[in-house]
Structure formats: C-alpha cells, structure tokens
Specification:
There is one protein chain. This protein is an alpha/beta fold and about 170 residues long. The protein has a single domain, classed as Alpha-Beta Barrel (fumarase), CATH 3.20.130.10. The two termini are about 25 Å apart.
C-alpha cells in the first residue's frame, strides 16, 4: 500500500517540491472553497489590489472547487472556464494547491509548475468530507448563496495529486 502524505495548511514551497503526480495526500487545516461565481471575483480583487485589504490570505493556501451547502461539499469540475482560468492568478497570489475533479488543460498544468503550485483530484464523496469538516465560515460574497467564498477547517481530506511540476495524471 502506498504511503499517504499528510499536508497541513499553510503549505510551503518545500512541501510542494516533494509532491509527485499520483501521490495520495490527506489535507488538514484551513482551506478556501470557491467555484464558478466566486473565483473570478477573487481574481478581480487580486488584480485591483483589494485582496490585500481583505481578510483573505492566499499564501500557502488550498482552494477547493466546490460550493458549500447544507448537503455538504463535493468537488465540481475544475476545467470549467471560470475555474480553470482563475488557477494562474490564484497561484501567482500564493495558492499552493487547487482541489477539484477532472482533467485540466496542459497549459494550466504548465502554469501551475511555473508558480510552484499543484492540482489534486478529490473523490466525490460528500458524506466522507462532511465528517472531516470542523468549521465553516463565510468569507466573501454572501449574495452568491452556496457559491459564496468560504473557509473551512478540515482534517485529513483525501486527495490524489493530479498535476505537479509540469506533468498531469491525465497525460498519456
């Protein structure tokens, strides 16, 4: 059986340097949640300089591509235009791990590598993740309802590294 790598947030460059495509990881600590509606707004805040004045600190962070609802959390497809196009500016702003599901484009894989960030896929197991989520806080964009930007405190979220250092688990 493969060893599971325990990752705690905030994530350092040294942790990212050691991760390889196919590694199984458990993620613990605080993570952010955002998807189609919230992530472009975070990118706009980065671009106009207002993120630095907010309570959102992306350095060493994880962004989970999900909504937060009473039913729990589960990954959405990361290759949606609004999500995948946010990965470069979010990585440049300090995000170290993007968490979602599905294949991402080779250009995005290369961009992650340039910014020493990785992408991990998480199984769509809402019940399991609910049992590993200990706190939930609305951080920004309450008008978006369950698609607002949230921060969760999690313990041992399971994932598999899907893209790291210019390689993807989906490559031939």
């Amino acid at each position: 059986m493969e060893q599971i790598i325990e990752i705690n947030t905030p994530i350092t460059d040294e942790v990212v340097d050691r991760l390889k495509v196919g590694d199984m990881v458990h993620i613990s600590g605080y993570i952010f949640c955002g998807r189609d509606a919230a992530l472009p707004k975070i990118v706009k805040m980065i671009q106009d300089g207002t993120l630095e004045k907010s309570v959102i600190d992306l350095n060493g962070s994880v962004i989970f591509h999900t909504a937060v609802s009473p039913a729990g959390v589960g990954p959405t497809s990361s290759n949606k235009l609004e999500i995948e196009s946010s990965m470069k500016p979010l990585s440049e702003a300090g995000v170290k791990l993007h968490l979602g599901k599905g294949a991402i484009h080779p250009d995005t894989v290369a961009t992650l590598s340039e910014n020493n960030a990785v992408y991990a896929v998480i199984p769509p197991v809402t019940a399991l993740l609910g049992a590993r989520t200990y706190e939930q806080e609305l951080v920004a964009f309450p008008e978006l309802g369950m698609e607002a930007f949230y921060r969760l405190r999690v313990d041992r979220y399971p994932a598999i590294i899907g893209a790291a250092h210019g390689r993807s688990i989906y490559d031939d």
